[in-house]
Every structure is written in structure tokens, then in C-alpha cells.
Amino acid sequence: TWKWVVGPMFLYLCERLVRFWRSQQKVVITKVVIHPFKTIELQMMKKGFKMEVGQYIFVKCPAVSKLEWHPFTLTSAPEEDYFSIHVRIVGDWTEGLFNACGCDKQEFQEAWKLPKIAVDGPFGTASEDVFSYETVMLVGAGIGVTPFASVLKSVWYKYCHDATNLKLKKIYFYWLCRDTHAFEWFADLLQSLEAQMQERNNAEFLSYNIYLTGWDETQATHFAVHHEEEKDVITGLKQKTLYGRPNWENEFKTIAGNHPGSRIGVFLCGPEGLADTLNKQSISNSEADPRGVHFIFNKENF
User: FAD-binding FR-type domain: which residues (predicted)?
Assistant: First the structure.
């Protein structure tokens, strides 16, 4: 038995030693941003830190707990000179981090008073392959939109730097939320991208659809009165917010018709039920002919 046990135990000890070494490396919190609905953004710097889009890190805050590590998706782009995470305050540990960063106080918090942070990672996810396709579908459900913040930022940096060498030519972005609170921090990024794409006369590069899934007909009717206004009253975007859930069969057929003979990457960060639906649609809408359209499904779950 010991011959079978000693190998895995040795690998496990090596992994723990690497994690301990990484956790001892100095991490500096350069900025803490408080977003609406008790969401904070931590911008950090660490010597030698390199990331790709959609990756995640493990974070430990000894001021809150000396043993707990928690995974967070990176919301910054590789082109930026810092890396960032968005933390929604939903439990004891996140509440402790919120207070340790001084977010519960009205006065300005000095940088030297910010807590020490240990970071392990980054670790890869399926979202890293987004630049391998000419056309992609990005589907985020609730807080599962965070990997695509990194993707959309990086796409914009690459587009501005050298659009001709960017393989990615079209993005279909879907965001499903039960209520409006989660829109508040992410809508700013979409508004910026929307404005900049229009300035470059390429508004068609990014098509996005935002769905409120938790609203009833009465609430939806109230906002439908403002449907003719130039900007959406909830998000401030030109694209109007939709109510209910997407008809995925129609969405896939429309995209397949727009891009015949293409390999289309489908990327999801969301619940298992939605993953099953998108996987089935990817299979049923892919053609048997190798020269036809093919949907390649990729997922990650929180």
C-alpha cells in the first residue's frame, strides 16, 4: 500500500510547498473601489505576476482568517499594469474583508492601513481560448459575468493596438441577471466599450443582450413605457434590456445563419442547468459537414 500512497503524497506536499512560497510573496493593494450593491474592487500589484484573460486566483487575508483561501476571477486585462478582482459581500469572510479594507468607514483610508493579502495563482480556465475563434458567444449568469470583464477589456486593448492582426471579428455577449443590482458596476464597462466602438465606426463588433430573468410582467410593463428613449433607463446603454429568458434555439440559429462555415466558440460562466442547455444547442446546431458551421462549447462553474 505504501508504494501507491507515497507518490501522490509527495506530489501533494510539493503542491503545498509551492502554494506556501507563493503566499509569502508581497502583494500590494494599490486601490480599493466601492461599487454599488456592496461590491468592492481590489486593484493589486505583485512582482512577476502574469495573467491571461478569464483566469482566477486564490486570495487569503490573514486579518480576516489565517487559513481560508477563496477563489476569485480576475476582472482586469493582461494589458493593464495591475490585476483586480471584484468581491460581492455575501458572507462572513467577504464582510470581514470589506471591513478590513475600511469600506465601512466614511473617511479616506490610508494605503498603509490596508490589510495584507496573499495571492496564489493565476490558474487557467476555458475562457483563455476566446482569441482562437473569429466569432464567439459569451454567456454570463449573475456574478458569472466577471471572467468576461477581463475578456472584453483585453479585446478592446488588442483592437486599439492592432485590429488587423486580431483574429476575433465578432462577439455576441449575453448577460442573465435576476435583478438590476448586479448591472451597476458592469454597465460602466459596457457603456465605455459601446461609446468607443461607435467612435471607430465599428459598433457591430460587439453585440450584447442583457436579460432580467427575475422580473414579472408588471415591472417590465412599467419600464416598457420608456422603451422609445435613446438609452435604456436601467443600464444607460443604447441596447434595451430584455425581460425573461433567451430563446436559445432562435439565438443559435440566427448566429449560425450569420456565420456559415465558421467555428464559433461558446463560452459560459454560470449554473449547471444553463450549461446543459447551451451544450445541447451547440451540438444540435452544428452541421455534420466539416465545412459547415460548428459550435464549440466551453464552460466554467462557480
Answer: 19-129
Nearest 5 degrees, angle CA 38-CA 46-CA 90? Answer: 20
Parent domain of 291? 125-297
| Residue 114: CATH number of its domain | 2.40.30.10
Same domain, 275 and 228: yes
SS3 content of the chain, % helix, strand, coil (to 5): 40, 25, 35
What angle (nearest 5°) sits at the alpha carbon of residue 152, between those of residues 209 and 119? 125
Beta-carbon neighbour count of residue 134 at 10 Å?
Answer: 15
Query: Are both 34 and 175 inside the same structural domain?
Result: no
Beta carbons of 221 and 253 less than 8 angstroms apart: no
Mean pLDDT (the chain, rounded): 79
Residue 284 lies in a domain: yes
* Residue 2 counted as domain residue: no
Which pLDDT tens digit goes with each residue over 79-93? 888 888 888 888 888
Nearest residue to 284 via CA among 260, 256, 243, 242: 256
Pairing assessment for the beta strands 118-123 and 56-60 based on DSSP bridges: antiparallel
The pTM (predicted TM-score) of the whole model is 0.75
| pLDDT, tens digit (0-9, with 9 covering 90-100), for 59-72 | 988 888 888 889 88
C-alpha torsion angle, residues 185, 209, 152, 61 (rounded to 10): 40
Phi and psi torsions of 82, nearest 5°: -145, 170
